[in-house]
Amino acid sequence: MKFFLLSDNVDTLAGMRLVGIEGIVIHKRQEVLDELQKVMSDETVSIVLMTTKLVELCPEVISELKLRQTKPLIVEIPDRHGSSDIGESIDRYVSQAIGFKIWGE
């Protein structure tokens, strides 16, 4: 199982490289889409880690891939600039997948 990181900052990439995860630093929407297409077609990659900022550049594409693709798994990770609302992202993803909100406010 091979991981690959798409990051918007060097610090996250450096940290992941320390544990053996390769990746790339990108900043623009088109760069995200291009690199994501390359990684999605790489049969050796099982899990794609993406920083929250990059996911926010193309949320509709990421949501569609998460719903339609079985491999590789796309996992959103917060970085040092990220917020702690990852739970809300998971809630939104599940709600989109099943068509209604499970948890009440």
Structure description:
The chain has 105 residues and is an alpha/beta fold. The protein has a single domain, classed as Rossmann fold. It has five helices and four strands, in the order βαβαβααβα. The chain has a four-stranded parallel β-sheet with strand order 2-1-3-4, with helices on both faces. The chain is globular and about 40 Å long. It starts with a strand and ends in a 7-residue tail after the last helix. Keywords: Ion transport, Transport. Belongs to the V-ATPase F subunit family. GO terms for molecular function: proton-transporting ATPase activity, rotational mechanism.
The portion of residues forming beta strands comes to: 15-25%
**Mean pLDDT reading:** 84
Order of helices and strands: EHEHEHHEH
Number of domains: 1
Question: Looking at the structure, what is the overall shape?
Answer: globular
Using the coordinates above, name the CATH class. Alpha Beta
Largest sheet: number of strands, sense, barrel closure: 4 strands, parallel
User: Which residues form runs of ≥5 with pLDDT under 50?
Assistant: none
Instruction: For the record, give the distance between the C-alpha atoms at the N and C termini, rounded to a whole number.
Output: 38 Å
Alpha-beta content class = alpha/beta
Considering the protein shown, what is the CATH homologous superfamily?
ATPase, V1 complex, subunit F
Largest sheet, spatial ordering of strands: 2-1-3-4
Q: How is the CATH topology named?
A: Rossmann fold
- Count every beta strand, where a strand is a DSSP E run of 2 or more residues: 4
Helical run tally: 5
Helix content: 40-55%
